[in-house]
Design brief:
- With 182 residues, the protein is α+β, with helices and mostly antiparallel strands.
- It has one domain: Muramoyl-pentapeptide Carboxypeptidase, domain 2 (2-Layer Sandwich), CATH 3.30.1380.10.
- The strands form two sheets. It has a five-stranded mixed β-sheet with strand order 2-4-5-7-6, with helices on one face.
- Helix 2 packs across helix 4.
Amino acid sequence: MLVPVDAELNGIIVSLAYGTPDNLSGRPIYRNPICLLQTDAAEKLLRATGLARAIGLRLKVFDAYRPPEAQWRLWEACPDPTFVADPRRGSPHSRGVAVDLTLVDGSGRPLDMGTGFDATVDQSHHGRTDIPPEAQRNRFTLLGIMTAAGWDNYSKEWWHYQLFDARRYPLVADGAMAPPLL
């Protein structure tokens, strides 16, 4: 079951990129962005929030549940399976068990991660040494927080985390729970 992520209650900054043109499609995809996750994923996100808070940081979420129609729009903008899941197979986002996020400091300023969110370049991959050392440390900090909270990472995108065995969750196509598309 999808549940809304209560940003204020959890101390998370929710800034869903697909509600703005600041994403790889270059245009808004969601009209009224709503941050939704499966209950299991929401609990693990809350756990990650506590781990970040313990070291003076917060999480900023760019995306969570993504309806299949949005997955198609992203695929049309970037049909590269390295960065966008083929909508015919489904995505962990379309199952409600993935988040795209970054770390911010206590004032809400994003930490340097070496590339922006949704950057479809090799430097977006985890473990890159051709980005500044500070960005490498920040990525490893995010990786440590998320894995300690029970998340699996996707090696090609520093910002993407999903539950282990994501395919055991069904694709969610319930339009009533989905962020409306433009």
